[in-house]
Amino acid sequence: MDMNMIQARNVKRCFTLGSGEPFYALKGINIDVPASKLTILKGRSGSGKTTLLNILSALDEPSEGDIMIDDRIFSEMSDIQKEELRRYEIGFVFQSVALIPIMNAYENVDFGLRLANYEGNRDKRIKEVLEMVGLSSRMYHMPNQMSGGEQQRVAIARAVAHKPKVIFADEPTGALDTASGLNVMKLFKELVGKEGITIVMTTHDPNLMELGDVVYEIEDGEIIA
Question: What pairing do the DSSP bridges indicate for beta strands 38-42 and 198-203?
Fold first, then answer.
């Protein structure tokens, strides 16, 4: 029986429109995210999937309902505890890559390890994760010397380097061509298998659905499948 890394119960997120009217981006979401699996949140732009990802990763707070991650309930945690959770136990991968342009691949991963106060051998871990994503020969290249797919692989190496429990990836293949996108998905599957990481990602690409262990479809702020 799969253990759940994350549980969302009756999660709602309400925003106030300029007219003062309430707008519910999420309307009572209930999902279970199993540990050491790849979970996909699929939906069109504006469906609420990124809002849900931000709430699951403690970047945003629900208007109602609650999130439990690794047996800790968000509403019972202080802001400092949530910040420590994001810093030490979570990794983030964004569509925009968000590498530091004046740092090479090695330095970008090292920066992530320093932020997470990684206590192991940093040099060994950096080389290990860059080899894991197939970039051993490119570790001293700058982001502008790399393709979009290579930059995204550096971003993934940085996200996994400090050995987080969960990686949240928002449209990680959105800016890539089909081949590079499939390579990123293959890499995610390998990370789940080799490192036992739980990955939650959003996408609107129907070609990627079958690669998820669990797929939730979101439409107008509700889970429909």
Answer: parallel
Tally Cβ neighbours within 10 Å of residue 210: 9
3-state secondary structure of 71: coil
Confidence class of residue 205 from pLDDT cuts 50, 70 and 90? Answer: confident
Q: Express each pLDDT in 100-156 by its tens digit.
A: 999 999 999 999 999 999 999 999 999 999 998 889 999 999 999 999 889 988 998
Torsion of Cα atoms, 4 then 5 then 11 then 16, to 10°: -160
Q: Could you give phi then psi for residue 16, rounded to 5 degrees?
A: -100, 120
pTM metric for this prediction:
0.90
Question: Can you say whether the dihedral through the CA atoms of 109, 115, 116, 122 is positive or negative?
Answer: positive
Contacts of 133 (CB under 8 A, 6+ apart): 153, 154, 156, 157, 187
Q: Return the biggest CA–CA distance within the chain.
A: 55
User: Where along the chain do its domains lie?
Assistant: 4-223
Q: Which CATH number fits domain 4-223: 3.30.420.270, 3.30.300.20, 3.40.50.300, 3.40.1360.10?
A: 3.40.50.300
